[in-house]
Write a structure and sequence with these properties.
Number of strands: 23
GO molecular function: ATP binding; DNA binding; DNA ligase (ATP) activity
Bound molecules: adenosine-5'-triphosphate
Catalytic activity: ATP + (deoxyribonucleotide)n-3'-hydroxyl + 5'-phospho-(deoxyribonucleotide)m = (deoxyribonucleotide)n+m + AMP + diphosphate
EC number: 6.5.1.1
Organism: Serendipita indica (strain DSM 11827)
Helix content: 25-40%
Shape: globular
Structural class: alpha+beta
Number of helices: 22
Largest sheet: 8 strands, mixed
Distance between the termini: 52 Å
Strand content: 15-25%
Subcellular location: Nucleus
Length: 655
């Protein structure tokens, strides 16, 4: 199945040797991927694409393949232009794209808008506009490097006249798209527009790209070495390769580094060449919510575990390179060195002499500079995100370190938390008001946890993090929401449940004194597998008048003229739709099944799940729309709630 080349056009034949990969190769794969909902088929199409690019660009004499072709193909498949921590982003506004389509195809902006209302997909409108255009010359086929370079140029254009410059580049790029390829309508314009919008909408999650890349590397080896593996042997090789690539990528999430190494050393030696490296932020380990102390004990029964204060601040991954350079990264791998110049300056004071290079995981928390008391996240959020000057800083920040991931040239992810914690305490030293270790208590009874939880709340924390201490269950698992880390927030105990991070996708016009602003909003969760936002509730409480003004200002800019195809609205009918960008943290009384909303449809029941009595907590600037809570988490919360209710009915509720 995997080896079968499913392309209708023989690109290997049509792709002259030594030339860069044609962009049409990618768009044809995208169309095939878009046409199926089966993950295995999506993986298979993508494997064919990547295998073609790797083997073709390797050329006859078996030389190293053209790294750029492979790297840029992968970036175009995940619709990114750089690693997260470099942060070159697409996401061009609708009006600019309409202007470019209009200029490039000669159709009026009004006609394009009307068609967009009908189709809900500007990419499709661009493709139709191209198809209806009469062309005299057939343009030279677009190549992967050209498209990648233009997209990057657009993303990097800033300053005066930047809008006009961007429109100019997009117009030219659209003009260079083919109208037909091998007798059928070309989808180049469609995917260029979708890339520029920031979403491909073909239901391709990044983990599928990683699986396909691992499979393509194995198939390339099979072909080059002329291996005659049995079906079973091939299948176990594919699985092993996938495991290797997933692990490597979670430690160094940079295709810029992983792909050249993969092509040079092959998949089997990749781990030896790509290890956690200071300077490249890894995806943080995440925790699962728990609703009761009893649940913690059920999980950790008979195991050694520790409870740590769950500080109410912002995650900070702190790196120091061998040459002394330091950097702080956010939960989202964003470089925060410019937000925290004070931390950068104080860091040397908490490092012992025997500590050269390191990566530690910590929470940056606002504190009162006179009393050292912890302050809530709201205080920290007053700080600007960029270009903060030390002399202007009003809110003091202290770092509370809770894990050590790398020390003096050695990754520590596969050591137990007990060992990592010992090394952390050995190599760093607390400095009042600047740096400390997360307060912890290694207890094992309900009473001990209860006492420590109350203490943490009294000290201004959100609750506790309970973590496995020993054995491989306590390894650091980058990017995983692991059962080996449980969060126990004080709110849970009041029966409220964990908060959710949701994307604002629609607005309802206000009434009475709120006519100038939106009076309520439509929220959605994000399904990474299907690359779509699923509606979950309407929210209108928890906002002050000032907050509504602020939200109106931000969201007005994001209004779009039609519902995007990647927002699964269900029965929700807001007055306006927004580009999915803004993330809010929200609490709710409970969850219920809903005939209107689409969140987690099919996971618990055919109906979706919605939030009852949702309440706005805060804006989550540190999360992008793709980091919103997912449908699986929502289904899990719903099931947990149903379980607690049935236990409660039987009189067995434990908290
Ligand atoms: P998530 O990160 O789980 O998606 P979130 O960003 O809303 O959700 P929480 O669910 O509140 O965060 O809990 C996890 C976060 O708690 C961590 O990302 C970290 O920023 C913070 N935290 C505070 N203290 C600790 C600690 N001792 N150990 C680990 N994380 C801690």
């Amino acid at each position: 199945q995997l080896l079968k080349n499913q392309f209708t056009v023989d690109f290997k034949g049509a792709w002259p040797e030594g030339e860069p990969a044609p962009y049409a190769l990618i768009t044809q794969a995208f169309s095939l991927i878009e046409g199926t909902t089966k993950r295995i088929e999506k993986t298979s199409y993508l494997t064919s694409l990547l295998f073609t690019v790797i083997s073709r660009s390797r050329q006859k004499d078996g030389r190293e393949p053209d790294i750029d072709s492979v790297l840029q193909t992968v970036y175009l498949c995940i619709n990114r232009l750089s690693p997260d921590y470099i942060g070159i982003e697409l996401g061009i506004g609708e009006s600019l794209l309409i202007k470019a389509i209009s200029e490039s195809t000669g159709r009026s902006a009004q006609v394009i808008k009307t068609e967009l209302k009908k189709e809900g997909d500007l990419g499709l409108v661009a493709m139709n506009s191209k198809a209806s255009q009469k062309t005299i010359f057939k343009p030279k086929p677009l190549t992967v490097p050209t498209v990648f370079a233009r997209l990057k140029e657009i993303a990097l254009t800033s300053g005066v006249q930047s809008q006009a410059k961007k429109t100019g580049i997009i117009t030219k790029l659209l003009a260079a798209c083919q109208t037909t390829i091998a007798g059928s309508t070309s989808s180049e314009a469609k995917f260029i527009i979708r890339s520029l919008e920031g979403k491909l909408r073909i239901g391709l999650a990044e983990r599928t790209v990683i699986v396909a890349l691992a499979h393509a590397a194995v198939l390339d080896e099979k072909e080059r070495r002329n291996k005659n593996w049995s079906k079973e042997r091939l299948s176990s090789k594919l699985e092993e390769a996938t495991g290797i690539l997933k692990q490597v990528y979670s430690e160094i999430p940079s295709y810029d580094l992983v792909i050249p190494a993969l092509l040079k050393y092959g998949i089997w030696d990749l781990r030896a060449h790509c290890k956690l490296t200071p300077g490249i932020p890894l995806k943080p380990m995440l925790a699962k919510p728990t609703k009761a102390i009893g649940e913690v004990l059920d999980r950790f029964e008979g195991k050694k575990f520790t409870c740590e204060y769950k500080y109410d601040g912002e995650r900070a991954q702190v790196h120091r390179l061998e040459d002394g350079t330091v950097a702080v990264f956010s939960r989202n791998s964003e470089d925060m060195s410019k937000k925290y110049p004070d931390l950068m300056e104080s860091l040397p004071r908490c490092i012992k002499d025997n500590t050269k290079s390191f990566v530690f995981d910590a929470e940056a928390v606002a504190i009162d500079k006179n009393t050292g008391k912890l302050m809530p996240f709201q205080e920290l959020s007053k700080r600007k995100r960029k270009d903060v000057k030390v002399e202007d800083i009003a809110v003091r920040v202290c770092l509370f370190a809770f894990d050590l991931l790398y020390l003096n040239g050695e990754p520590l992810l596969h050591k137990s938390l007990e060992e990592r914690r010992a090394l952390l305490r050995e190599h760093f030293v607390p400095v009042p008001l600047e740096f400390d270790f997360a307060k912890s208590s290694d207890g094992d009874t309900t009473e001990q946890i209860q006492t420590f939880l109350e203490e943490s709340v009294k000290d201004g924390c959100e609750g506790l993090m309970v973590k496995m201490l020993q054995s491989d269950e306590s390894f650091y698992e980058p990017s995983r929401r692991s059962v080996n880390w449980l969060k126990l927030k004080k709110d849970y105990l009041a029966g409220v449940g964990d908060s959710l991070d949701l994307v604002v996708v629609g607005g309802y016009h206000g009434k009475g004194k709120r006519t100038a602003v939106y009076g309520a909003f439509l929220l959605a969760c994000y399904d990474a597998d299907n690359e779509e936002w699923q509606t979950i509730c309407k929210i209108g409480t928890g906002f002050s008048d000032e907050a509504l003004q602020e939200h109106a200002k931000t969201l007005k800019e994001l209004e779009i003229s039609a519902l995007r195809g990647d927002i699964k609205a269900g029965g929700a009918k807001p007055d306006v739709w927004f580009e999915p960008k803004v993330v809010w943290e929200v609490l709710a009384a409970d969850l219920s099944l809903s005939p209107i909303y689409t969140a987690a449809q099919g996971l618990v029941e055919q109906r979706g799940i919605s939030l009852r009595f949702p309440r706005f907590i805060r804006v989550r600037d540190d999360k992008s729309a793709d980091d919103a809570t997912g449908p699986e988490q929502i289904a899990e919360m719903y099931q947990r709630q149903a379980l607690a209710q049935s236990k409660g009915k039987k009189g067995k509720g434990d908290a």
